[in-house]
Amino acid sequence: LREVATRHRDAVVGREPAWSLVPDRERGLKQLTTEAEDALTAWWDANGVLAALQEATLRLLFAEESSRGDEPPRPAVSPLRLFIRSSSVGEDGRVPKRGSLGEALADIGIHACTPANAGVLRDADGDPIATRYSYRDETGAMLTELTGTGANLARLGLDVDATSDTLIVILNGNTPVGEPVAYPLGGALLMHEMRREPLITPAAIMQQKLINKAYTMMSRNVDVAGFVERTFLNAQAPGRWLGEDGQPTEPGKGTWTPDPLYVGAGATNHVVGVIEPREDGTYSYASPSVVYRDPVSPTAFTLTIEQAYRAVLEEAKQLHVLLAGDATASGESRKQAMSDYVDSLTTTAAQVQGAIRWLLTTSLRLAAVLINAPGRFDAFRVTASARIRVVQPTSEDQQATLAKYEAGVLSLETTLAELGVEDPTAEMNKLNATQPEVEEVAA
Fold this sequence. Notes:
Elements: H1 2-13, E1 18-23, H2 30-46, H3 49-60, E2 76-84, H4 101-106, E3 108-112, E4 118-122, E5 128-136, E6 142-149, H5 150-155, E7 166-172, E8 175-176, E9 181-183, E10 191-196, H6 202-225, E11 229-233, E12 235-236, E13 239-242, E14 255-258, E15 272-273, E16 275-277, E17 283-285, E18 289-293, H7 299-315, H8 320-323, H9 331-370, E19 380-385, H10 395-406, H11 412-418, H12 424-442
Antiparallel strand pairs: 1-19, 2-3, 2-10, 4-5, 5-6, 6-7, 7-8, 7-9, 11-18, 12-15, 13-14, 16-17
């Protein structure tokens, strides 16, 4: 399960996603766009945003247990939370005014939460109205942080002003701790949930348990049935009859003293049949024989593991992993398996792109408040694109991409991304910086 989940995650967010700020009004916003993009890029790198997205994406792929066994699993949920760093809060409990956007963004952290202690509260229509985050403070007390507009928090029964500002309220049980903190964020919430149909379903989990059981049985098989067994029939163990004086005596008289049985390459043992007494007091020897049982083959376990592994891949839309090395699979079946895999990736990519848009938009709005310029960046909208990578582009794929660029049907940024350039924007900036030198040499 971890293999298929990490393969899926790495295909969606294994590489840095592409994002940019697009102003709603083009005129007079070029300098502001550069300021915001530079500050957000530095903040993205300093806060490990990609790692947080990867953690949240991996959690998004697992199903949540349904309340009843006959119910389908609920959608998988993975929350992301923005917060003001405690080190940024002054002794008066307030964040000092910052002089630049970069300084303000440094006060903001990102946290990939678990659904057990964080989530978005929704109304009857499914619209998000507030968020909750539970944690323990330095004294061990369990606290709950609620965020939302004053109007929505009042609807939840909290004694706050019904304002349009985003409020942060800390509760110890049902008792507020301190005064609510208000931010003029236009109703934006400081938490976002990625939601999708789970990739790792209960059926896949059952197959994983079968794989675990088969490996356990195979290990047990090595211990109890992995060695040659010998069974001697009608045979007397090697040894001799000794009298009371310790000297050899007739069979059946005295005490039987066994000799060691030697096994392995080159070993020689003399085995005789057991004594069979007659009515006249004489005796005879039975005809001895030996039966061998060879080690039990682990084939039953390995076949079980292979079939269960195939079932996991099918359930996770990753059957192409097996078909890639299957000489009997047709090209059409490989294309269909790859198509199913790509479709499952796009579902996750859409959630990641939505999370990035929320993340950058809300961070900009919150940073603008911290520099005492609320609404300064409201004219921007964020575009985001997860750079899905299924397989490495072949030389033929790269030639086809270059041909489409030369034909004018692909932008330079898209062309660089398809060619495998990690940061197309940075590469374009380098190309633009060297362009005058190229023109001068050409002249």
